[in-house]
Amino acid sequence: QIMIPAVDEEQQKHIEAVKDLILSEVNVKELQFVEGQGILVKKVKCNFRTMGKKFGKLMKAIAAEMSALDQDEISQLETEGSITLDIEGEQVVVDLSDVEIVSEDIPGWLVSNEGNLTVALDVEITEELRQEGMARELINRIQNIRKDSGFEITDRIIVTLAPNENTDKAVESFGEYIASQVLADKIIISDNDGQEVDFDNFLLNIKVEKV
Fold first, then answer.
1. CA neighbor of 205 nearest in space, from 161, 144, 154, 140
2. What domains are defined for the chain?
3. How many other β-carbons are positioned within 10 Å of the β-carbon of residue 208?
4. How far apart are CA 181 and CA 143, in angstroms?
5. Would strands 184-189 and 157-161 be described as parallel, antiparallel, or unpaired?
6. Confidence label for 36 from pLDDT (cuts 50, 70 and 90)
């Protein structure tokens, strides 16, 4: 899952226009927009090299003010592109390009920023997601065996998988989906003399027969 706190309606509209492409490219099931910035804790980092030239002796005081901005003020800076500060009696305008806005990681999420766009990626793998991933691996391996065996695209098959706790659970939860993708009338869990297939951390015998 990807979570995005859109800074305004225009940004959300642009993202929604390519939502399906994003999900496909990064292999994520859901993209969710969230209201406001409440889920994230953001901080402002000043670019001392460029801001020092721009603000001179006021730089130190500006940096202190910028580091003390609250979440609403940071959101305002992102949305409006600048923020005005009262520094030693002077009105100082700090542009978004003068600073870097970074987000602290949320437990279980990976957070990244680019300009005024923030993306949080759920990196926790649930048991269901693990089984679904294994189901997709099985589909890939079975399709390769179909191809190597010279079967026609429309040929129906029977698949026999050697017993293995990793794949057994995937078949139990996603058996119908696997069967529909590989055109299998049956998926049988049983010892067999089929092809030995290498998964990341185990080997599995898979036998594919034409009906």
1. 161
2. 1-39+104-124 (no CATH), 42-100 (3.30.720), 127-210 (3.30.2320.20)
3. 24
4. 9
5. parallel
6. low
